[in-house]
Amino acid sequence: MKVILIRFLIGGVAVSVFAILGDLFKPKSFAGLFGAAPSVALATLGLTVASDGKHYAATEANSMVAAAVAFFAYSSCVSWMLMHGKVSALWVTILCLPVWALLAFGIWYAWIR
Amino acid sequence: MRIEIEPSALRKTRWYEFAVRFLFGGLITAVAGIIAKKFGPGVGGLFLAFPAIFPASATLIEKHEKQKKERAGLQGSARGRKAASVDAAGAAIGSLALLVFALLVRRFLPDHNDWLVLTVSTGIWLAVSLLLWQIRKRL
Question: Which residues of chain A are within 8 Å of residue B3 when distances are taken between CB atoms?
Fold first, then answer.
């Protein structure tokens, strides 16, 4: 339980720092870069190396390759739908999550596992 | 278009909007750890590039842009969606740099100092993001 709480706190801080950086910069297209910052990865990998070793963390990074490709497809999909549709940002970002899930798990299952 | 820092933008953000992003960031980090323990690091690693705070951030940008337009007496829904769309296009560029980050960590973490690998990979993430953003801007 203590480990989960530590992960929660470090993850929350890491994500918040990059989110604040994203708020600070303009133009918006530049600020958006911070939406795909390696915040969760930094928090997780640092803790994982300490608890489970470097090879375990490298295996996580290996899967992250598939998830990053999926993130690209997801954010491109969100961008296109917001530009061309009339649905709110909240709904578009939620409705596109299956795109991330299908691609991340699909690429991982087909090429990485 | 020049890159500028706008500290006043932070004043537009309410405390609960910061809290929501902290909560989602913390939750996904904790969940990634739990999933890695239960299903192995292969599955857990996928959540290191999960768009955890994307819905909250996009909604925030849409809301702030809409409020700005409405204060000027204009209808701001379309403008709000467009601002969130531009932000998401930036995230798409950042995610390509995130792919480079993951490849670097995968390659160098097993044989080198972990903090050095993570720090240098983060610096390269930023450099690749900037480079791709500049290229995209010129197209």
Answer: 25-27, 30
Residues of chain A contacting residue B25, judged by C-beta atoms under 8 Å apart: 11-16, 19, 39-40
In this prediction, the residues of chain B whose per-residue pLDDT falls under 70 are: none
- Is the confidence metric ipTM above 0.90 for this complex? yes
Residue B135, φ and ψ in degrees, nearest 5: -60, -45
Predicted structure pTM score: 0.94
Which residues of chain A neighbour B21 with C-beta distances below 8 Å? 15-16, 19
Looking at residue B76, its pLDDT comes to 84
Separation CA B106–CA A57 (nearest Å): 8
**pLDDT, averaged across chain A:** 95
Residue of A20, A34, A78, A86 to mutate, interface with B, max B Cβ within 10 Å? A78
Q: Distance (Å, rounded) from C-alpha B87 to C-alpha B80? A: 11
